[in-house]
Design a protein that fits this description.
The complex is a heterodimer of chains A (about 425) and B (about 150). Chain A is α/β, with parallel strands linked by helices and about 425 residues long. Chain A has 2 domains: about 140 residues, Aspartate Aminotransferase, domain 1 (Alpha-Beta Complex); about 260 residues, Aspartate Aminotransferase, domain 2, CATH 3.40.640. Chain A is built from 14 helices and 17 strands. In chain A, the strands form 5 sheets. Chain A has a 7-stranded mixed beta sheet with strand order 4-10-9-8-7-5-6, with helices on both faces. In chain A, strands 13-14-17-16 form a 4-stranded antiparallel beta sheet, covered by helices on one side. Chain A has a two-stranded antiparallel sheet with strand order 1-2. With about 150 residues, chain B is of the alpha+beta class. Chain B has one domain: Sufe protein. Chain: A (Alpha-Beta Complex). Chain B is about 40% helix and about 20% strand. Chain B has 6 helices and 4 strands. In chain B, strands 3-2-1-4 form a 4-stranded mixed beta sheet, with helices on one face. The relative contact order of chain B is 0.22. The chains are: A alpha/beta (about 425), B alpha+beta (about 150).
C-alpha cells in the first residue's frame, strides 16, 4: 500500500486545514480505536466551537422569546435572532432581509412553497418540472401539490454521467410549465446543475423557479440576485450550523403576494374571531416560536464560513475531490456513480458485487464514517439500476489522509468479503 | 470491542457467496415480499406448504451479506418443519438478535442460526438479519402487503 501514489495537493497559502480542523471538537475523537475520518458531510456537517458556544450563550444568558417581551433578555434574543437573518441575507446576497424566512429545514422550505405558492397558483393541467436527480424532499411535496391541484409532475432525465440532458430539459419547459424546481448540487452524484441556464429557460415561459441549495450552500458562494431564482432553499445543519433551522429565500414581491403557510402566533398583525390580518415579511411565514437558538447558531456558522471564504474552501475541496477521484478509481472493482462535468466533492460508488451496507459497516470499524443506502433519492438509484451506493462527501475540514484511510478501509472490505 | 469477524463469520460469508435455496419456486402455495427501505434490500420468499408442513422453500432478491446469508440460513432451517415449528423458530431468532449484546444467547435453541448472534453488536444491521424472518411471517399469515423492517 503506497498511500501517496497520487500527488498530494499543495496546501493553499490562505487555507490551513489543520487550523480549521482544530475548531471542530467532534473531529478530535477516535471511533473504534481509530482516528475519526468523517466523510458524511452531505448528510450533515460537524459544528465549529463558535457555533456550539453561540447555542450555549443563548441558553445561558439570552433565553427569551423573540418579538414579544420588552424585557432585556427578550430584546437581546430578538436582536441576535434578527442579526442572524441579516447575516444569512448577506450570505446569499438577497436584496432585503424581508426575503429571508426561517424554517425548520430545507424540506419545510420546499413544503412551504409547494403549499402556499402551489395551492395558490397551480391549476389542473399545469406542469411542475423537476429533474431526475432530486432528493425526495424536492419530489414528494410537488407530488402532493399536484395531487391537490390537478397539476402534472414532469421529470427531466439525466445521462449516465449524472448531468441533466439539457435538450430534454428545454423540450419539457413549455407554456404549461408553471414551476421549475431543481437541485443546485446533487447529494448523490455531486453534479452542479447549470441553474442559470435552467432559470433562463423557465423565464422564457414565465415559470416560477425554486432552487434546492441544501448541498450547494456549504460548498459554494450563492448570489440570488445574480442567479435570480424566485425561491432558493437550504438547511442550517449542512453549513456547519445547528439542526432544526432552515432558510427560504423568496423574491419579496412574490412572498408578499403569497398566502401564508402555517397560521398562529407571530404571523399576524391583528386577530379577531371574524378575521385576522397577516403580519409583514418575513414574519407572515414564521408562525409560532421559532428555533431561536438554532437561528442564532446558524448566523454564527455563516460568519465562520464567511471568514474562511468560499474561495479558499472551494480550492481545498476541489483538490480533495481530484485526489479522492483518482485514489478511489484505482480501487479494484470500484465504480464511481456520478461523474458530471461540473461536480462538487461528493463521491458515490459501488464495489463489484459488494453491498454498500456491508462496506459501510466495515469501514466504520476503521474509523471512517460514510453514508450507505439510497440517500433519500430512490429514483436516482433506479436510474442507475443499483439498490444503493456508498458515498464519501468531503467538507472544508477533510484531508488527503482521511481519503487514504478510506482507501485502506476499502482494502479491508475486499479482503474480508471479496 | 466486537471484531468484524464475529459479524462476518465464515459460515455467513459462505451463505452470501453461495446462497442455498435461491431461485423461483414454481409450485409455491404462498409467498411474500420483504423490503428494507433503509438500504433497499428486497427479497421474495416462496413456500410450499402441504398440510401443516413446509415441504419446500426458495428465496430470490438482492441484499447485503447479512440479509442474504440470513435468508439462506433460514430456508435451510425451516425446510421440512411444520408451520408451528417455523413460527417458534422465528420467535427464538427474534429473541436472539434483540437480546442485549452483554447477555448470553441460547445457542442451542437456534442451532446453526447462532452464527448471526454477532449482529447484536451492530444495531444498524439487526434489521438486515431480520428481513427474511419477517417475510416468512408474512408469507405464513398470507399478509397482502410487503413485509417491512420498519
Amino acid at each position: 500500500m503506497t498511500p501517496h501514489a497520487v500527488p498530494v495537493p499543495a496546501a493553499s497559502s490562505s487555507f490551513d486545514v489543520k487550523a480549521v480542523r482544530a475548531q471542530f471538537p467532534a473531529l478530535q475523537q477516535q471511533v473504534h480505536g481509530k482516528p475519526l475520518a468523517y466523510l458524511d458531510n452531505a448528510a450533515t456537517t460537524q459544528k465549529p466551537q463558535v457555533v456550539i458556544d453561540a447555542l450555549r450563550h443563548y441558553y445561558e444568558r439570552d433565553n427569551a422569546n423573540v418579538h414579544r417581551g420588552v424585557h432585556a433578555l427578550s430584546e437581546r434574543a430578538t436582536a441576535a435572532f434578527e442579526a442572524s437573518r441579516r447575516t444569512v441575507q448577506q450570505l446569499v446576497n438577497a436584496v432585503s432581509e424581508r426575503e429571508i424566512v426561517f424554517t425548520r429545514n430545507a424540506t419545510e422550505s420546499i413544503n412551504l412553497v409547494a403549499r402556499a405558492w402551489g395551492d395558490w397558483q397551480l391549476k389542473p393541467g399545469d406542469e411542475v418540472l423537476i429533474s431526475a436527480m432530486e432528493h425526495h424532499s424536492n419530489i414528494v411535496p410537488w407530488q402532493m401539490a399536484c395531487a391537490r391541484t390537478g397539476a402534472i409532475l414532469k421529470v427531466a432525465p439525466i445521462d449516465d454521467r449524472g448531468d441533466v440532458i439539457m435538450e430534454e430539459f428545454e423540450r419539457l419547459v413549455t407554456t404549461k410549465t408553471k414551476m421549475v424546481a431543481v437541485v443546485h448540487l446533487s447529494n448523490v452524484l455531486g453534479t452542479i446543475n447549470p441553474v442559470e441556464e435552467m432559470i433562463a429557460l423557465a423565464r422564457r415561459v414565465g415559470a416560477t423557479v425554486l432552487i434546492d441549495g441544501s448541498q450547494a450552500a456549504y460548498h459554494m458562494a450563492v448570489d440570488v440576485q445574480a442567479m435570480a431564482p424566485d425561491f432558493y432553499v437550504f438547511t442550517g445543519h449542512k453549513i456547519y450550523g445547528p439542526t432544526g433551522i432552515g432558510v427560504l429565500y423568496g423574491r419579496e414581491s412574490l412572498l408578499d403576494a403569497m398566502p401564508p403557510f402555517l397560521g398562529g402566533g407571530d404571523m399576524i398583525s391583528s386577530v379577531t374571531f371574524e378575521k385576522s390580518e397577516w403580519n409583514g415579511l418575513p414574519y407572515k411565514f414564521e408562525a409560532g416560536t421559532p428555533n431561536i437558538a438554532a437561528a442564532i447558531g446558524l448566523g454564527r456558522a455563516v460568519e465562520f464560513v464567511r471568514d474562511i471564504g468560499f474561495e479558499a474552501i472551494g480550492a481545498h475541496e476541489a483538490a480533495l475531490l481530484a485526489y479522492a477521484t483518482e485514489r478511489l478509481s484505482a480501487v479494484p472493482g470500484l465504480r464511481l456513480v456520478g461523474t458530471a462535468r461540473r461536480k462538487a466533492s461528493v463521491l458515490s460508488f459501488v464495489m463489484s458485487d459488494l453491498h454498500p451496507h456491508d462496506i459501510g459497516t466495515i469501514v466504520d470499524r476503521e474509523g471512517v464514517a460514510i453514508r450507505t443506502g439510497h440517500h433519500c433519492a430512490q429514483p436516482v438509484m433506479d436510474r442507475y439500476s443499483i439498490p444503493a451506493t456508498a458515498r464519501a462527501s468531503l467538507a472544508m475540514y477533510n484531508t488527503t489522509d482521511e481519503i487514504d484511510a478510506l482507501v485502506v478501509a476499502l482494502d479491508r472490505v475486499r479482503h474480508l468479503l471479496g | 470491542m466486537q471484531d468484524l469477524h464475529d459479524l462476518y463469520q465464515e459460515v455467513i460469508l459462505d451463505h452470501n457467496r453461495r446462497p442455498r435455496n435461491f431461485g423461483p419456486l414454481p409450485d409455491a402455495t404462498q409467498s411474500a415480499k420483504g423490503h428494507n427501505p433503509l438500504c433497499g434490500d428486497k427479497l421474495t420468499l416462496s413456500l410450499k406448504v402441504e398440510g401443516d408442513r413446509i415441504t419446500d422453500v426458495m428465496f430470490e432478491g438482492s441484499g447485503c451479506a447479512i440479509s442474504k446469508s440470513s435468508a439462506s440460513l433460514m430456508t435451510d432451517a425451516i425446510k421440512g418443519r411444520t408451520v408451528d415449528e417455523a413460527t417458534e423458530l422465528f420467535d427464538r431468532f427474534h429473541q436472539m438478535v434483540t437480546t442485549p449484546s452483554d447477555q448470553p444467547v441460547d445457542e442451542a435453541a437456534v442451532g446453526k442460526l447462532a452464527v448471526l448472534a454477532g449482529v447484536r453488536e451492530f444495531p444498524a444491521r439487526v434489521k438486515c438479519a431480520s428481513l427474511a424472518w419477517h417475510t416468512l411471517k408474512a408469507a405464513l399469515t398470507k399478509a397482502p402487503d410487503p413485509a417491512k423492517t420498519e
